[in-house]
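Morning F.,

Quick status update on the modeling queue. The single chain you submitted on Monday has been processed. Sequence for confirmation:
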Amino acid sequence: MIEVKNLDKYYSSFKALDNVNFSVDDGQIVGLLGLNGAGKTSLLKILGTLQLPSSGQALIDGVDVEQDPYTARTKIGYLTDVPALYKEMKVISFLRFVAGIKNVPSSEIDRYVEEAMEITHIKEVANKRLFQLSHGFRQRVGVSQAILCKPKLLILDEPINGLDPIQIIEMRDLFLSLKGKHTVLLSTHIISEVTKTCDRILMIHKGKLVRECDNVEALGQDQIEHMFVELVQGSGQGEYNA
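Structure tokens below.
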């Protein structure tokens, strides 16, 4: 589903991504774990066709995001770190608006919106304006717009930031319910959440993909925490596969 080859990203002289290589299979939930400023959002923006790479290649379901961004976008649902919500709109009106932008046939819009709201458990706030919602519900609306057109790939950038403990649990359950229906790439700096949600973890540090954990359940949270702390303290060098 995702194939990234020798990807670099510069902002002027600053190198945000440095020769990043990885692939993700269909149906996996993959966590992109790194500190703030590690390069996670830059990578997701390239995959989401919001930025161009400086060099290298990224493919979504075989489509090059630089050469054919319009086709790539039809395969992607994207929740940015700060969801782009029109806060004066009602939830249901906003989702209908997004469905229209995404070229859902007018005869199908209500069905698509209803299904997305049901999956994300937001039907109770369908007629509330977005500014009236809690942060947790706004995040759910963000996920709703991302899954609206049943994309093959969901890109979720720091989706649990700012949520309280109950909201985090609810959001975790939501992500797990998406497993198998979508390929999910989830960015976070919270280790406990990737260990409870993801099949694989990609650890990124200072723009480099430095470790891959392919069997999260077998490794367990304690070992993954140890790996990550070792990494950010500078003693974890090279690539690790588990």
